[in-house]
Specification:
The protein is an alpha+beta fold. It contains 3 helices and 2 strands; from the N terminus they run E-H-E-H-H. The longest helix has 9 residues.
């Protein structure tokens, strides 16, 4: 049975740690996504990952994260 962690997950490292340690199979965000709809993009940048984004978003990537979008 898949387990999803939810509640008070605010930082990218926290979410990654929960999944990496096996405490849960996935994390769910509610308030964090309401506050920052681009939370997954910001978390990916913080963790050094890239994201697939639609072409119309390509101009919006920060100059400091040129490899952020695939």
């Amino acid at each position: 049975m898949a387990v999803i962690a939810v509640g008070l997950i605010t930082e990218a490292e926290q979410a990654e740690g929960i999944v990496f340690s096996g405490e849960a199979d996935a994390v769910a965000l509610a308030r964090g996504m309401l506050y920052d709809p681009r939370w997954p993009w910001h978390a990916a940048a913080k963790l050094g990952a890239s994201v697939h984004a639609p072409n119309q978003y390509l101009r919006s990537q920060p100059h400091t994260l040129k490899q952020h979008f695939e």
